[in-house]
Design a protein that fits this description.
It holds the Pfam family ABC2_membrane_6. This is ABC transporter permease. InterPro entries: ABC-2_transporter-like. The chain is an all-alpha fold and about 230 residues long. The chain has one domain. About 75% of the residues lie in helices and about 0% in strands. The longest helix has about 35 residues.
């Protein structure tokens, strides 16, 4: 993909509002975000539920949601430490080599968007993984989910290259906030009003997913307790 974005445009050509350098930065950026945000909670829940490991987790002095959340945070912090040299090199490239104009406000907006993306991803992934309470094996469901979410989140290509009809639909869905929105904030920038409106929509999805997670988790644990005795 890196070589595709490097060769797809020449000179001053643009695609979906992205220049050649911006497309390269976009692809590198979404990979960083995915490595940092996309923790496989759904896969872990599926495994823990069907292996019986969830019974041990339930005996811990912490709620199951908090257990998986802090487990994700610990893993992401380890990833952040591993990625720190690449982050430094990427920052140097963005500021010096690509001559992108990065302000303190943009960095602040990006960090807020990255944090909210992490929370939104946790809620979404946990809800999907909770389906394992009712289904024997989610292996193929999770595989299909990975492909579809990657597509809708703008991992394979920027959402802005799609026809206006599809963009108008995707802008209301939560998937763009998993990848494309945070990196667009940093690379392309946006007005404070646009960023705020998108952030409010993302917060709405977070609240909605939070309520859904609470309901699904409660019903799922009740079913798990009935089966496990």
């Amino acid at each position: 993909m890196f070589y595709l974005w490097s060769s797809i445009l020449n000179g001053d050509e643009t695609l979906g509002g992205f220049s050649r350098n911006q497309l390269i930065l976009y692809y590198v950026g979404v990979n960083f975000i995915n490595f940092f945000v996309w923790y496989a909670i759904d896969w872990e829940l599926n495994s823990d539920i069907h292996s019986g490991e969830l019974s041990n987790i339930l005996h811990k002095p912490i709620s199951i949601q908090k257990y998986y959340f802090f487990r994700m945070v610990g893993d992401r912090m380890a990833n952040l430490f591993i990625l720190s040299p690449l982050i430094l090199m990427g920052g140097i490239y963005i500021i010096i080599i690509s001559k992108s104009k990065i302000s303190i406000i943009l960095v602040f907006q990006f960090l807020i968007s990255l944090f909210l993306a992490t929370v939104l991803w946790f809620l979404f992934s946990y809800i999907v993984g909770s389906l394992a309470f009712w289904f024997e094996n989610l292996f193929f469901v999770l595989l299909v989910k990975e492909v579809l979410v990657s597509l809708l989140a703008g991992y394979y290509f920027p959402i802005s290259i799609l026809p206006d009809f599809w963009q108008s639909i995707l802008q209301w869905l939560p998937f763009q906030y998993f990848s494309s929105f945070p990196i667009n904030v940093l690379i392309k920038g946006m007005t404070g009003k646009t960023w705020l409106m998108n952030t409010l929509l993302e917060l709405t999805w977070i609240v909605g997913f939070g309520v859904t997670l609470s309901f699904v988790s409660r019903k799922g644990l009740q079913k798990y307790s009935d089966v496990a005795g």
